[in-house]
Design a protein that fits this description.
Elements: E1 9-12, E2 19-22, E3 71-74, E4 88-91, E5 94-97, E6 101-107, H1 121-139, E7 146-153, E8 165-171, H2 176-192, H3 196-207, E9 211-214, E10 218-221, E11 232-236, H4 248-268, E12 275-280, E13 295-299, E14 302-305, E15 308-309, H5 315-318, E16 322-323, H6 327-336
Helix pairs in contact: 1-4
């Protein structure tokens, strides 16, 4: 009989078809790796040197308006461009294709010192409303077939500016992660006529082992196949395909569970918890995607404390992901931060 708490084992990701190696017995080993000092200094509410604060001039020469809630603008150093070549290159085994798109920056608040867990639910709801508008507007562009909404929080996640913000990249092709999730959700839909994540959520709610928190419309869980130590999924209890379909009530409760989960992160190690988060939803290419089930993923790198990180190295780079702390252990710690 497999013992999840002690036996090395592999877990299957139903959304991507990939595996993760879990080695729970390794949590007993002493830690002699790298640690770093943590900084608890709160930044000022306004930083004259910050290119995202209201009324400040960005590096590209544009001046931000004196915004009072949220702000969105085209990235001054975008990774994708709407007027780039769409040509192809093929030579022997070499293949390249032009990629059109655009990138936008979303400032969550004019206050330089806050992050999502610090904000009022009403202010987070404004962010969600802006995400909805951008998804619908960008998805109507003839060269956009997928809209990726994401946030990199914290310097160790590559965030170049501490001002609370995220990004939206809209592009012509469908990204690899989206293609994998499309395939596996569609396979389940064709077999059962049901949403893959709805069936998964039913099992998680019955077992409770990986549940973090929930409200009337959304559930946050550490997925059974989690790779990052405190990885989380926010899944709606209603099956819908994209953020544009959120009702006003769901928009508010989505904001509420975003605050609940990220506050738990901050309290876990008493630090402003770094992560990369992203929304996965149906493409905008005009196709029918009944199998798609909107969800949001969080990939935080912290492992044992505010100063000990999880690195993808060695076996994980050359074989497949591996973790020590199980999804059940991680969920229990996140549940208990308020106990």
């Amino acid at each position: 009989m497999l013992d999840f708490s002690n036996d090395p084992h592999r877990r299957y990701n139903i959304l991507t078809g990939e595996w993760v190696l879990v080695s729970p017995h390794r949590t007993k080993r002493p830690w002699q790796g790298k640690t770093e000092a943590t900084n608890h200094t709160r930044p000022p509410s306004y930083d004259p040197a910050c290119y995202l604060c209201p009324d400040n001039t960005r590096i590209g020469g544009h001046t931000n308006p004196k915004y009072t809630h949220t702000l969105v603008f085209d990235n001054d150093f975008a990774a994708l461009l709407p007027d780039s070549s769409s040509g192809n290159f093929e030579k022997g085994l070499l293949n390249a294709r032009g990629e059109k798109g655009l990138c936008r920056v979303v400032c969550f608040s004019p206050d330089h010192s806050v992050t999502i867990p610090d904000m009022a639910i009403g202010d987070i709801e404004r962010i969600v409303e802006l995400w909805q508008k951008e998804f619908l507007d960008l998805g109507r562009l003839d060269f956009v077939n997928y809209v990726q909404i994401f946030e990199n929080k914290g310097e160790i996640m590559g965030c170049s500016n501490p001002h609370p913000h995220g990004q939206i990249w809209a592009q012509n092709s469908l990204p690899q992660e989206v293609l994998k999730k499309s395939e596996h959700q569609l396979c389940h839909w064709n077999t059962t006529g049901r949403s893959l994540l709805l069936d998964y959520l039913e099992q998680e709610l019955a077992e409770q082992d990986r549940l973090i928190c929930q409200n009337d419309d959304f559930v946050a869980v550490v997925p059974f196949w989690a790779v990052w130590p405190y990885e989380a999924l926010i899944i709606p209890k209603r099956h819908f395909q994209h953020i544009g379909q959120l009702t006003p009530k769901e928009r508010r409760l989505f904001a509420a569970i975003l605050k609940d989960l990220t506050q738990r992160y901050d309290k876990l190690f008493d630090t402003s918890f770094p992560y990369s988060s992203g929304i996965h939803q149906s493409p905008t290419d005009g196709g029918e995607y009944p199998a798609w089930h909107f969800h949001m993923a969080f990939y935080p790198p912290l492992l044992r404390s505010a100063s000990v990180k999880k690195f993808m190295v060695g076996y994980e780079l050359f074989a497949n992901p591996q973790r020590d702390i199980t999804a059940e252990m991680a969920a229990e710690k996140l549940r208990q931060v308020y106990s």
